Amino acid sequence: MSGSGGEVNPLSREPGQPSTPQLRDLLSSLLASRDGATAAGHYRGLCRAAAAALPVRGVSLSLIVSPDSTTLLASSDATSERVADLQFTLGEGPTRDAFHSGAPVLEPDLDSASLTRWPGFTPAALDLGIRTVFAFPLQVGAIRVGVLCLDNDRPGLLTARELADVNVLVDACVVSVLNHLGDESTQAGWADEVGGYMSVVHQATGMIMVQLATTAERALLRLRGHAFAKNLSVAVVAAEVVARRLSFVNWE
Questions:
Q1: 32/127: higher pLDDT
Q2: CA distance 82 to 100
Q3: Are the CB atoms for 219 and 212 separated by under 8 Å?
Q4: Of 67 and 100, which is predicted with more confidence?
Q5: Euclidean distance between the first and the last CA atom of the chain, given in angstroms as a whole number
Q6: Which one, 11, 17, 37, 159, has least CB within 10 Å?
Q7: Section 4-29 average pLDDT
Q8: pTM (2 decimals)?
Q9: Mapping DSSP to helix (H, G, I), strand (E, B) and coil, where does residue 130 land?
């Protein structure tokens, strides 16, 4: 499975090859030199290209260490970024379910009357104009490193050919992320980029713990709840707490 420089070539992986030149070019870009480009910039380009190559409206890529350590690595646009952030804020959604189960979560119509598993996420996503979400875990065996999430503004399932294309892309993303994590020349920069988000959230959680004399779990819930109530990302609210512009004292 290994290519030159210790990296794995996703185009040599079996089974499956992309069905269109556009998607093949996208997968090839995962192996392109990252010189001069940040990890975030590299994967932002990937998400945008994937949204253009696949029959979806938007794409996001999240790096996940645990359910409470989720970092949005990149998204194709602001709406997909908001869809990803809502799931961390609310503690529910297809991305989290895919990570927990290790299996794809395919929801063809969020507006379905029978959909009750995401009571907070579903109406919020519908308000954004999102009707469909497909989440695919990035994993090798039992090891999971993240989730690729696709969203659409109209209902419907992926065809068998489209699903096969996504699975090839998912395999390539796993390889790329693992290569990025294992590349000593980019490890420090990568850690700064993906660690900065969670560092701020953890620091804010600790400050709220002290302010409210409560547990980390309850402090994180308060942080998420405030972000949802104000229609802000958790990262934005956490930064306000860390900068001491926002306090939860006397909010109980």
A1: 127
A2: 21
A3: yes
A4: 100
A5: 55
A6: 159
A7: 49
A8: 0.69
A9: coil
